[in-house]
C-alpha cells in the first residue's frame, strides 16, 4: 500500500506508510479516488486553524470521493463496490440538535474527518457508514470529489428558499460561488446576478447560469429577493446585504478574518432583512447535493484545474494559496 500525507505539526509534514484500518461494526472502508484541497487545509498546514478545530498529527482531507471496498458488521453488504462521498462532521446522533437533523450543531463537541479524525489524503479512509452518500453507478468520481463544498452551498440554497421567478444573486466567484450559481439556477430565477472581484470569472459564471456579472465597484442594484454570500470577507457581507430589497433573504457562508466589521445591525433591523448562516452541511443538504448532481444539474468538473499525486502535497498547498487566477480547484490523487 502506498503512502499517506501526515501533518506532524504546523508547517511540518511527511509521507508515511499507510495501512488500511479494517472497518469495525457500523463502519466502511473506502478506496479514495480523489481528494480536494481548500483554504481550511491550508490553515491546518500553516497552524492558524482555531484551537479545538484541529488535532495533530493528522492526515488531512475532508473533500473526497471513492469506492466502498469493505464494510463492518451491521452495514449492508450491498454498499461494497458502490461509488460514494461522505459527510465530514462526526455527530453523536443522540443530542437534541442531531435529532432535529442539525448534525453540524451537535452538542457533543466538534469532530470532523480531516481535522480531528484521519482524512482522505491516503489510499483508503475508514469511517462510520452512516456518513456515506451513495452516487449513481455512472458518476464521475473526479467531479464528485467536489461535492463537499457543494453540500455546504446546498445548505445555503435550502435556507435561502429561493422560489421560481425570484431575483437572486451570488457574491463571490470562487468554488463556492460557482456552486451557488448552479443551485440557484436550478430553481428557475427571473434574474441571477453574480458580483465578484475577478472579471475573468464572468464567462464561467454565465456558463453556469448567471444572467448578469458585475464587479463590486460597478453600480449595483438594491432590490433582489435572495443573496448568497460566499466570499468570506466582511466587505462581501456588506455588499451582499446592500443588494437586497427590504425584507430580502441573505445567507452568509464565508468566514471572515477575526475582528472584521461587516453588517450594520441597525440596517438589518430597519430593512427587516432575514439573515441565515451556514457552517458545514447537515445530512439533508448532502442528500440534496447528491440528488442534484445525479440529475445532471451540477457540473463540478470545469472548476478543477490541477490534479496531482499525493506526494506533491506541498506544491498543491502552494497553488491553493497562490492567488493565481489560473488556479481553480486542486485535487490530489492517492
TrEMBL record:
Keyword Oxidoreductase: yes
CC cofactor: Zn(2+)
Gene3D superfamilies per UniProt: Medium-chain alcohol dehydrogenases, catalytic domain, NAD(P)-binding Rossmann-like Domain
Catalytic function, reaction form: 2-deoxy-scyllo-inosamine + NAD(+) = 3-amino-2,3-dideoxy-scyllo-inosose + NADH + H(+); 2-deoxy-scyllo-inosamine + NADP(+) = 3-amino-2,3-dideoxy-scyllo-inosose + NADPH + H(+)
Boundaries of every Enoyl reductase (ER) domain copy: 11-332
EC number: 1.1.1.329
Biological pathway: Metabolic intermediate biosynthesis; 2-deoxystreptamine biosynthesis; 2-deoxystreptamine from D-glucose 6-phosphate: step 3/4
Keywords, comma-separated and alphabetical: Metal-binding, Oxidoreductase, Zinc
SMART domains with a match to the protein in the record: PKS_ER
Pfam families: ADH_N, ADH_zinc_N
PANTHER family: ALCOHOL DEHYDROGENASE-RELATED, L-THREONINE 3-DEHYDROGENASE
Task performed by this protein: Catalyzes the oxidation of 2-deoxy-scyllo-inosamine (DOIA) with NAD(+) or NADP(+), forming 3-amino-2,3-dideoxy-scyllo-inosose (amino-DOI).
Family: Belongs to the zinc-containing alcohol dehydrogenase family. DOIA dehydrogenase subfamily.
Protein name per its UniProtKB record: 2-deoxy-scyllo-inosamine dehydrogenase
Amino acid at each position: 500500500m502506498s503512502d499517506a500525507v501526515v501533518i506532524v505539526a504546523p508547517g511540518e509534514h511527511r509521507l508515511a506508510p499507510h495501512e488500511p484500518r479494517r472497518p469495525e461494526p457500523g463502519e466502511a472502508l473506502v478506496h479514495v479516488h480523489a481528494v480536494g484541497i481548500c483554504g481550511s487545509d491550508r490553515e491546518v498546514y500553516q497552524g492558524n486553524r482555531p484551537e479545538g478545530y484541529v488535532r495533530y498529527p493528522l492526515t488531512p482531507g475532508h473533500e473526497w470521493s471513492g469506492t466502498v471496498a469493505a464494510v463492518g458488521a451491521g452495514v449492508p453488504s450491498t454498499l461494497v463496490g458502490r461509488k460514494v462521498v461522505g459527510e465530514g462532521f462526526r455527530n453523536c446522533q443522540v443530542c437534541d440538535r442531531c435529532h432535529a437533523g442539525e448534525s453540524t450543531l451537535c452538542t457533543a463537541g466538534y469532530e470532523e474527518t480531516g481535522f480531528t479524525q484521519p482524512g482522505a489524503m491516503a489510499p483508503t479512509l475508514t469511517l462510520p457508514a452512516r456518513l456515506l452518500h451513495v452516487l449513481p453507478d455512472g458518476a464521475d468520481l473526479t467531479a464528485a470529489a467536489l461535492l463537499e463544498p457543494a453540500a455546504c452551498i446546498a445548505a445555503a440554497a435550502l435556507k435561502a428558499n429561493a422560489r421560481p421567478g425570484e431575483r437572486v444573486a451570488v457574491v463571490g466567484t470562487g468554488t463556492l460561488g460557482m456552486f451557488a450559481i448552479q443551485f440557484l439556477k436550478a430553481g428557475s430565477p427571473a434574474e441571477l446576478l453574480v458580483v465578484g472581484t475577478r472579471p475573468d470569472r464572468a464567462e464561467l459564471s454565465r456558463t453556469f447560469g448567471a444572467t448578469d456579472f458585475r464587479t463590486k465597484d460597478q453600480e449595483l442594484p438594491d432590490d433582489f429577493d435572495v443573496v448568497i454570500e460566499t466570499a468570506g470577507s466582511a466587505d462581501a457581507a456588506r455588499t451582499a446585504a446592500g443588494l437586497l430589497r427590504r425584507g430580502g433573504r441573505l445567507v452568509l457562508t464565508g468566514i471572515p478574518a477575526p475582528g472584521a466589521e461587516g453588517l450594520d445591525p441597525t440596517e438589518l433591523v430597519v430593512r427587516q432583512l432575514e439573515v441565515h448562516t451556514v457552517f458545514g452541511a447537515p445530512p439533508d443538504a448532502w442528500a440534496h447535493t447528491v440528488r442534484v448532481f445525479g440529475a445532471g444539474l451540477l457540473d463540478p468538473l470545469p472548476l478543477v484545474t490541477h490534479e496531482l499525486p499525493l506526494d506533491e502535497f506541498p506544491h498543491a498547498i502552494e497553488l491553493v494559496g497562490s492567488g493565481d487566477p489560473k488556479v481553480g480547484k486542486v485535487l490530489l490523487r492517492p
